[in-house]
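For the sake of transparency, this paper describes our internal protein records without simplification. Such a record has a labelled line for the sequence and another for the backbone structure tokens. Nothing more is needed to write down the fold, since each code stands for a local backbone conformation. For reference, a complete record is included directly beneath this paragraph.
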Amino acid sequence: MSSSTSIISKLIHGPASRPVIWVVVNLLATLTLSSVVLFLGITPAWSGTPTERSITVSFRDLDLSSPKDANELYRRIQSAARQVCGYVGADLIEQSLWRGCYRNTVTDAVGKVNNPLLTAIHTGHPAPMTAMLRK
């Protein structure tokens, strides 16, 4: 057995080499997963290439000082957010991404309307308290 073979054997089988082996195995697993993702054309949520979709929600027919109408607008916003965020997905990661999209979309829309009663419905805080928080 040559000296280089015995050195490699000691590196592979020695107790000090175990962390090195785990690093190599993890690196190979990461590379394999990355190649599968690239091959399938999947764009992860953290990739930085969001697709912007929007839906206009009309509320000209509503009086936002009325709790009934503010609730109606909130339902319309929720419905639009479901359409914007698309299919919920089958696995836990897709469902988690969808919930984040839905939650952020509804929050952004409520913020754009900037109505204390609608904000109160969204946050669950009473309207006077919400109005005080905005100051």
